[in-house]
Amino acid sequence: MKQLSRLLVVGLFLIGFNNLQAQDENNPWQVSFGVNAIDVYPTNDQDAAYPTGTLFSEYFNVNDHWNILPSISYVSVSRYVGDGFSVGARGSLNRISKLGDVAADDLSHYAVDGTIKYNILKEKMIIPFIEIGGGYTWVDEIGFGTANAGIGASLWFTDNIGFTLQTGYKHAFEDYGVKHFQHMAGISIKFGGTDTDGDGIYDKDDACPEVAGLAAFNGCPDSDGDGIEDGKDSCPNEAGSKELNGCPDSDGDGIADKDDACPNEAGLAALAGCPDADGDGIADKDDACPNEAGPAANNGCPWPDRDGDGVLDKDDICPDVPGTVANNGCPEVTEAVQKTLLDYAKTILFDTGKASIKTESEAVLQNIVAILAEYKNSKFTIDGHTDSVGSAKTNQRLSEERAYSVMNYLIENGVASSRLSATGYGEDRPIADNNTSQGRRTNRRVEINLVKPSN
């Protein structure tokens, strides 16, 4: 029987070797061999003819419960099928001298198992795994089927050689079967690497395993022969320099042709390889005035200043009339102009007790319109005032109506409404004595005042 068990293990190995195909992407095969231990005690098998403990009790009681054959007692082979999964077969043999706490008469034990293994981690030095499967076990020539589940881990010393430690539970289907745990420790060997692209470099060491390449580039190609492998070559089919990642530079401006908007004219990196003759930061090909510096907003041409006041036309509210920078290119209202406006405004005549402007004031109003037209960005307020004759309420209303009457006239004659505002002050701001007829005449007035910008 001992020889039969050994032959069975060898046969199992040969069958697996001839039918399995892959272990992982770089090493398609894995063969393991080592020592196994059988423990029937921590199975909680209440139907057993020998004493057992609760599940996992005295799990590591090696001396009292473990059955170990001091030689190579298991061999396995497996095939990688993708996504961390492997399928395989294992053969093992042992001698049972301990059935729980009861001595046995060296019962023979051998088993054949099919396995499905899942590696929890990949490409690590220590790789834990879980394993399930099923098989057939013989104890003293009595056979029974088992369902198996276990865990373990492999410590890989190199890409090919490692140490595997695992434990698993085998549940017997038949009542007479021996439920037991099987522990294994052994050497694992991965091998059988392939060279898909036939470049003499195995896939596991080939950075480009599906494209034939050079050993100098870890199996990757250099199609244009410029000494830069294609994967790092920005222009793999055109020979170039290392400084430009393998790309050519026809105009020698330090910018690769593929990134150069003007590949045949030396230029600047900031302008995608195009020249800028006038140095205004706009490429000559996009510059309407390539030999005269100007801003991009004006297509590379300088902004004009028609009135020569130092304020460019684009910023000049009065581009045809010289003005000041502080007043956005428009002339500023001087004290003399302000006095003229006040003098004109005081001569505006209204119908008695009304806001209607008399026709003889038309010329004065037109003079005011002409002055305001010269100062296009200046704002003015029209202030209405009365004497103290009559009620304060009536005088307030009349002053407001007269101020608005003048403002509306100016708007109707071309002065922008956004530049004008009107206010009535009634009899509150006299500038002469209301006790005299001359004083009252002076107090009945309209003023046009410049609104000074707030700082």
Structure description:
The protein is of the alpha+beta class. Among the domains are: 2-191, Porin; 335-451, OmpA-like domain (60s Ribosomal Protein L30, Chain: A). The chain is 16% helix and 28% strand. It contains six helices and twelve strands. It has an eight-stranded antiparallel barrel with strand order 1-3-4-5-6-7-8-9. A hairpin with a 6-residue loop joins strand 5 (102-119) and strand 6. Helix 3 runs antiparallel to helix 4. The radius of gyration is 52 Å and the shape is elongated. The chain starts with a helix and ends with a strand. The relative contact order is 0.06.
How many individual helices? 6
- SSE run: HEHEEEEEEEEHHEHEHE
The residue-averaged pLDDT reads 88
List low-pLDDT spans: 1-22
- Tell me the Rg in angstroms: 52 Å
Query: What kind of sheet is the major sheet?
Result: 8 strands, antiparallel, barrel
The strand line-up of the biggest sheet is 1-3-4-5-6-7-8-9
Pairing-aware structural class of the strands and helices?
Answer: alpha+beta
Distance between the termini: 112 Å
What CATH calls the topology of the domain at 2-191 is Porin
> What share of the residues does DSSP label as strand, in percent?
25-35%
Q: Globular, elongated, flat, extended or rod-shaped: what is the shape?
A: elongated
Helix fraction? 10-25%
Q: Using DSSP, what is the number of strands?
A: 12
- Named at the architecture level, the CATH assignment of the domain at 2-191 is Beta Barrel
What is the CATH class of the domain at 2-191?
Answer: Mainly Beta
